Amino acid sequence: MTRGRRPLILVTNDDGMFAPGIKRLVEISREMGEVIVVAPNSPQSAKGHAVTLADPIRLNPVNVFQGIEAYECSGTPVDCVKLAKNILLKNRKIDLCVSGINHGSNASINILYSGTISAAMEASIEGIESIGFSLEDYALNADFDPATPWIRTIMENILSNGMPGTKLLNVNIPHPSLGPIQGMRICRQAEGRWEEEFVEGVDPRGQKFYWLTGNFNTHDTGEGTDIHALREGYISVVPSLHDLTQHRAIPQLKSLESLNPHV
Amino acid sequence: MTRGRRPLILVTNDDGMFAPGIKRLVEISREMGEVIVVAPNSPQSAKGHAVTLADPIRLNPVNVFQGIEAYECSGTPVDCVKLAKNILLKNRKIDLCVSGINHGSNASINILYSGTISAAMEASIEGIESIGFSLEDYALNADFDPATPWIRTIMENILSNGMPGTKLLNVNIPHPSLGPIQGMRICRQAEGRWEEEFVEGVDPRGQKFYWLTGNFNTHDTGEGTDIHALREGYISVVPSLHDLTQHRAIPQLKSLESLNPHV
Q1: Residues 6+ positions from A122 with CB-CB distance below 8 Å
Q2: In this complex, which of B79, B201, B253 lies closest to A237 when CB atoms are compared?
Q3: Cβ of B239 under 8 Å from any chain A Cβ?
């Protein structure tokens, strides 16, 4: 894929241009290719696969990473990828899209809510091999050092050998407090859900409000799941798709086809 | 499921409380159960699976549907479902969640961008059987009459017999201009993508903007796809899931597990 020229790498995230995670991802990416960065100009965590239809979007060049073309975008992470591909890089082949490094895990069901992974997924829908990277540590001063050689290795391998059987990898890196990274595991997405709580309050104008909080909960922690790999100190790599069909249910639902309200 | 009591049906959408589509869905739902409506207080099309984390959410009772408990929510469609389940209906079992009727198709890849289907998917993650309904007509005055008996039949059937093999159905109804509805087909999600264009302009303050537009494009229109069913005048029913793992790629990527940057 890289024969004869340096690969073109699109870097994005959902935390914005000044998050330490994207800085690290740009540093790794610039070692191996030509880099363009398009990131949201405001925090876009948990924006899922949202796109901006009803408003214009702004794109402003910023000088954040020396010698690297970078743009702040007023839209969502998915908007960033659309603008990068269609406006900034029109007609150029993107060899790899990397999103992150997210401050916080996107394992299990969190892939659906995550702006980080949605950006990578949008690129994968366009046929671009894409990787979302997340570190299991929400702290702004999270330590990305132990993860760095692993991320470099994954990216180099994908750039050299492609991504057989998928266009999207959801890569999660264990919390640094778990000790040295044990290795990598190719996993399936664990079943899980958020045990929601809403903090109820009253605002200064006397109006009631609800504020979302809660705990992530999963019992699907057996071998082969991303949650299991992370708990054991391994990086979880989940090959992911955008076909949401529950194929095995198609024959089970076939009897619905005989329903007709007019008979 | 309905033994001994009327089923509890949660109705939501992404177009807000005053869209004709939700009015029709409430009318159908109230024939067969106890209904609660929670819908966004602003248009939330294409908001995907976004949730509101950084802001408080408001919930206001509204008297829109006579005799029906209804609330406007300041958040996303997914927020609506979370608040309905956790705040408004705490500890009560929801028998069915229906979202829509969306003004516009959510077939193929549009399931990912759609606020309508994301709301239903959020309920399905919580184990609630859920259906997203969409009509292939963006017009505000779209004709929901031909679809109505079919929607009623689908909902009655699911309430009586459950939803084998899945918790979420993505139901799309052909454009009324295609003539009488031919029946229902259980389908897979067609591959497809948006051919993006951005309208470029300059705002009154002299700042450049981009505005997303484009055309949906698919070559995956063979028998068995939702796009094929719709083109033939059938209602497409795609059983859907929230496990995005590309399972078949797991063995293909296994060699990545032997990579180690420190060896």
Answers
A1: A49, A77, A78, A81, A82
A2: B253
A3: yes
**Which residues in A lie closer than 8 A to residue B210 (C-beta atoms)?**
56-59, 83, 87
The verdict on a CB contact (< 8 Å) between A239 and B246 is: yes
Which structure tokens are listed for B150?
């079919």
Q: What angle do CA B5, B6, B12 make, to 5 degrees?
A: 145
A112 touches chain B (CB under 8 A): yes
pLDDT digit string, tens, across residues A60-111: 999 999 999 999 999 999 999 999 999 999 879 999 999 999 999 999 999 9
What is the C-alpha separation between A263 and B40, in angstroms, rounded?
37
- The DSSP secondary-structure symbol of B175 reads -
Which structure tokens are listed for B168? 């979420």
Map out the domains of chain B as residue ranges. Answer: 8-191+220-243
Three-state secondary structure along A207-263? Answer: CEEEEEEEEEECCCCCCCEHHHHHHCCEEEEEEECCCCECCCHHHHHHHHHHCCCCC
Are B137 and B175 in contact by the 8 Å Cβ rule? The answer is yes
Of 3.30.450.40, 3.40.1210.10, 3.90.640.10, 3.40.1490.10, the CATH number of A8-191+220-258 is 3.40.1210.10
Tens of pLDDT, residues B111-128: 999 999 999 999 999 999
Between vectors from CA B71 to CA B136 and to CA B135, what angle results, nearest 5°? 5
Q: Is B1 on the interface with A (CB under 8 A)?
A: no
Cβ within 8 Å, pair B48-A52: no
Taking only residues 152 to 191 of chain B, the set having a beta carbon closer than 8 angstroms to any beta carbon of chain A reads: 152-154, 157, 163-166, 168-170, 183-189, 191
**Six-digit token pair at B12?**
């939501």
How big is the A-B interface in CB pairs under 8 Å?
257
CB neighbours of residue A16 within 10 Å: 17
Q: Write the residue in B112, B242, B253 that is nearest to A164 by C-beta.
A: B253
Instruction: Please enumerate in sequence order all residues whose Cβ is within 8 A of that of A150, keeping only pairs 6 or more positions apart, or say none.
Output: A173, A181, A184, A235, B261
Using a CB-CB cut-off of 8 Å, the residues of chain B touching A184 are 256-257, 259
Query: Which of B47, B58, B78 faces A209 most closely, judged by CB atoms?
Result: B58
Q: What is the pLDDT of residues B68-84, one digit of tens each?
A: 999 999 999 999 999 99
Q: What is the ipTM of this complex?
A: 0.91
Q: What is the CATH number of domain B8-191+220-243?
A: 3.40.1210.10
How is residue A26 written in tokens? 């740009």
CB B51 within 8 A of CB B171: no
